[in-house]
Amino acid sequence: MTKHRFPKGWDEERVERLIAELDARTDEEWIAADEAASAADSEQAVITVPTTLLPEIRKLLAAHKSV
What we know:
mainly alpha; extended
């Protein structure tokens, strides 16, 4: 069995709590979360891109965070 590696401050219990919380969300709660993420005053954006671009986008995001 593979030993899981978690980011700093995370452990298996925290991951399980997050999964349970997300699994318990209703469709309305998911929609509200999406709308909040795309609010005008948010520092985040939600976009739709072709899945073939995801590897390159992930590389760009990883490079941005390390700068």
